[in-house]
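Handout, section 4.2: multi-component inputs.
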Amino acid sequence: MPQWLFAFLAALAIIGALGTILQRNLVHCVLGFALVLIDLGVLYMGLGAVTVGFLQIIVYVGAIMVLFLFVIWLLNIQADTGVRGGASLSLKLVGALAAAALAAELFVVFSHAPKLREVRTIAPAFGSVATLAHVLFSRYLIAFETTSLLLLAAIVGAVALARRLAGQSAEVAAMPSQPGSAARESRREVA
Amino acid sequence: MTPIIDYMALSALLFAIGAIGVLIRRNVIVMFLAIELMLNAVNLAFVALGRRIGSMDGQVIVFFVMTVAAAEAAVGLAIIISMFRNRETVNADELNLLRW
Amino acid sequence: MRRRAHTQRLLASDSGVTIELVIGAIKAVVIVLLVLGLTTLMLWFERKGSALIQDRIGANRADIFGLGKRLGMPNFGVINTVLADPIKMFTKEDFVPDGADRFLHGLAPFLALFPVIITFAVVPMGDILKIGKYEIDLQPANLNVAALYVLATIGIGVYGIALGGWASNNRWALLGGIRASAQMISYEIAMGLAIIAVVVTYGTLDLQQMCRAQGGVWFGFLPRWGILLQPVSFLLLLISGMAESKRVPFDLPEGESELVAGYFTEYSGGKQAVFMMTDFAEVLLVAVLITVFFFGGWQVPWLYRDGFHFPGGAAWLLPNIAVAILQFVAFWIKVIILSCLQILIRWTLPRLRYDQLMRLGWKGLVPLGLLNLVATAFVVVAAGGK
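Output:
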């Protein structure tokens, strides 16, 4: 992939990631993350992993992020105080420093890592559905079957956990409240 | 192909941003999103390195990580739902029943 | 010397790339214009067709300076639909409700329209067209995982609807938006299963290959169309496609008599026009998918690359340009017929209640799709296919 395209996609991913962790409105956070996911999907396709790239978009963006949105709306979670409220300043400072140290350490480790043997030309079917399926069903068959069991367990677990037990009233007893008024309220509180 | 260090640098940066997100946000859902961000950063590293050595293993691992992340998101959100029903809050600081 | 030769080679390859880009751009523009134009045609058919079905006349007043009346022509409501209504919609006041999320309110209609239109990029409109020494594949983007691309873009289409409902600061809109997105993700599964069964039958994800594989005849005269191979998938795709585009009988999220207008209650003017366009573009998309998978795409019965070869033995050879035009026209005729079918179904059937809708999707279509997929897989392996 040409260098300018990679730079553009990388910048977009970083903007989306920063939006995810810095936005006050939860729905904006989810949308920022969806942007990062689509961006990464396109990067995977550029790296030859076409199937995995499309699966990322179908599964992550199309299903998991929608699940996040549904939970936010079901529980009627208001926009919270974001980064300004929340943890104490010292905790945030230490956290930021620790993450920066982590990033720096990772950079150093990666740049001094032993050079892997590079394969410049790959088969045209690299990353295609057929190749991925072939590898999945031959070398990784046991992992594949175990993953399907895991998914079944997750479905049953999620349904069992999210069930409304006898005696609990519905969350949305009142009507779903408005997205803007909560921000106005919280601003009034903080000020 | 863009040099591998570019992809690894992006992956490291996204991972660090996710780590910051977990540390400075108190809203459980945003923390969850930041954790997923870290997962995806690692996925990118896997795919890039798999491409570099010309092996399909990177993509297979990403396939499994994606599946497990989907399952984990479902169960995690179910836990958040039931916590919210009990305690009426999604602020991690207020979910402190197990604290001494 | 070497540098000049190198530059010459660069320029030569550059012009080759430029030609490719120009051809690709022309194909993309053609298909987008066609889609937008056919959307208007479908809108007209909906108004006049529904009027005929409901035993009324429909729109027949708008005229340009009384020309039609003076010429004595009956008014078919075309000017109404093509000129008057768009002008009205785009010049209406465009407001954002108080307290709503301005950015998302404005973004949502386009977020809903964009995935639908980009799906048309992988649609094959014809076989190859030979101009001079160029062989143009009549498909804007030649993707060899086109079926996955279609599934991905259909998945992204949920966002525009859900965000449109939420960003309106209106409880009915939010309710409509949540219902709509729940319905869409439920029927995506049935749609995916139908598409996968077709993929297993043809052994390829590429839409152009699937169309080509539907050429030829069985028993000397029956065209080898997909509906004869996968009738169950056809029904599944039709039903789940209509549910996906939230048309009656699945239009409870729009709930014209219940939820005001569902998720686009708070939209007026241009943004509502974009939502309406999304509705008809999805109708066209479902029609296009059904055509490509089950009705041979651009295949005309007994028409091969060099001309007609009728079952009796008679042949009528045609130049490549005529074959290409025939295939192109045939494709869009099939698409129009299937879109009209969907519109007729809309005005015939009553609306499904929401729990009936969900029950049909999860307990009816998904098991049916799975059974169909397993049966297809068995048959394909038994027949020795890939």
